[in-house]
Each structure stands twice: as C-alpha cells, then as structure tokens.
Design brief:
This protein is an alpha/beta fold. The chain is 47% helix and 19% strand. The chain has helices spanning 2-21, 43-58, 76-85, 95-98, 117-124, 127-133, 177-185, 198-203, 214-219, 245-250, 253-287, 297-306, 309-317, 321-333, and strands spanning 30-35, 63-68, 90-94, 141-156, 170-173, 189-192, 209-213, 228-231, 236-244, 291-294. Helix 2 (43-58) links the parallel strand 1 and strand 2. Helix 2 (43-58) runs antiparallel to helix 11 and helix 13 packs across helix 14. The longest helix is centred in the C-terminal third of the chain and has 35 residues, at 253-287. It is globular and about 60 Å long. The termini are far apart.
Amino acid sequence: MKKFYTVVSMIVVLTFVLALAGNASAAAKWNIKLGHDQPEKSPHHDGALYFKKLLEEGSKGEIAVKIYPTQLLGTGVQMSEMVQAGALEVLTIPTSNMQVLQPALQLLDLPFLFANREVLGGQLDGALGDALYKPLLAKNIVGLSWFYSGFKQFTANFPIRRPEDFKGHKMRVMPAPVIREQFKALGASPVPIDFQELYSALQQGVVDGQENPLTTIVSMKFYEVQKYMTLSNHAFLGYVFVASKSFNDSLPANYQKLLRESASKAALYERNLIQEREKGFLETIKKAGVNVIELKPQEQQAFQKAVEPVYDWFNKNISGGKQYYDMVRAAEKKK
C-alpha cells in the first residue's frame, strides 16, 4: 500500500511539473527536468545553470533543460526515486538522500575520512567515484559527476568545544544512518528533519543545532536562528550528479558524451564557486552576530577520537561498505 501511494504521489508531482514546464522548447527534441534542493541564490543553482548553458548550446537547442530548485519536485529521497522511475531526467542531491538506493554512498558522510578537498577530489573523480556509482546502474541511474557543498560545521544555540558539549542536546540529521551514528557517538540525540523544514525547526527549538557547510548555512540563512558556530570541518557533504539511465540511453552517442562532459564541467565550475565564496560566507555569519568558535588542534583531535566507532559501525552495517572504505585507506597509503 505504501508503494502504491508513493507511485501515485510521483504521478501527481510529474503532472504538476509538466504543467509548470509548458512548452519547454518547440525546437528541442529532448527535454530535461533537473531537480535539486538548494535556493536559486546558491553555487549549486549556478552550477545547474552552467550545465543548462553547456548542454543547450552544445546541442544547438536540440536539448532543453528546465531547472527545479528548492525541492520543488519533492524531497531528496522522493526525487531519487523519480530518477529511478524515469520520471526525472537529471538530479543533483546530497549523497545522504541517494543512499536509500545505494547505501555505501554514506562512505562520504563518515567524519574525518578525508583530510582536505584535494585528497577528496583525487579519489571521488577517480576509481572511488566510479565504484560508488556502479551499483546504481541496476537501479536505472547513471552517475555523471559530483557537486560539492564543502566540509561541514556545527551550528547550535549552545557553544560546542568538546564532544561532551553535545550531551542532552537534540541535533538535526539528514536521512543517513551514518550521520545518526556520528551524533550518537558524540552524545547527542539525532532527530531527522527534512532540509526545507530545518529553518523553522531551529527557530522553534524543535532541535538545538545542526551541521552543514558554510554555503548552506548562508544560503538557507540558518545563521539567523543559531547563536554559535563551531568551525569543525568534521565531515564532507557531497552531491551526486546523476541521470536517469533510460533517458541517457535514449540519447544518441554524441549527446550522451555531451551530457557527461557538461556535467563534469559544471561540477568543476560549482566547486570553484564554493571555494571562492567561502570567505564571504564566513563574514556574513560573523556579521549576523553568530559566535564563531575555532577549535584548537587538541580539541579537533578529541572529536576525531570520539567518532572513531562510527567507522566500525559503517563497515559492519552497510552492505558492501567495507570495500569502499578500504579503497580510501589504500589510496592514502600510496601517498
């Protein structure tokens, strides 16, 4: 019965989408709906616009792209299911949402797994990224590239300097068991809340805090309803950039290549925007009156030690997860 209602909901959403889209383009032979969860004033949306430009210009108008930001098409999990069903052509969404179809994507949510962007990019744009996407082919989803949000920071209505500071506090979590386990290891009570409902949940005190990269804290204005931010850089927030395989396969070979190349170029563009704007994001947060806490090396190490059990939990509980975890560790040893 639950599956029936899910399918019906997707049909209703798709009908709404088609009504919004109208005549996408009289000249276009292929029309793409691209969904994501960020507001229009965000690096993610700018990256999506660049993808649209590259694809439409590269196909000389034979492919048209319409972008649906801010979860207009549904939650991240719902949009993931729409891509699987072939009802949505392209999607960029946090890995924690797509993990319902490929649980091992939670590897990227593991705290303190990647030292910096360079280490991460070297692995995600190589064999690790390809391996993580491979199981999705059987779910009618093809991986194109990866968007970034950056490394996550803690925000809360209480100061966070030690793992013990989380005790007795409720922290919002994304729909990923690994993130739930991370906060449990820190002593907090994890509470799942949808991304678009998070601002009001923080404002109303439903939860005491959350984690997100600087770009999201600013674009969603979470700094307006939080008193403290700890610059922890404790975990990475990555975005899948995927397409419906049935749609991809319907394109001629030259346009399949164009789709992938446009996604790769748009991903690099989006990542550069994130990096360029982060200093400004931090200043925006500080000017809003948020008390920004910078951790000392020994304080950072205390957090790393506290979350170590999450690695074991991942390897034991996530199907096939250990092989990807071992890939990350093996790549580290080669350097």
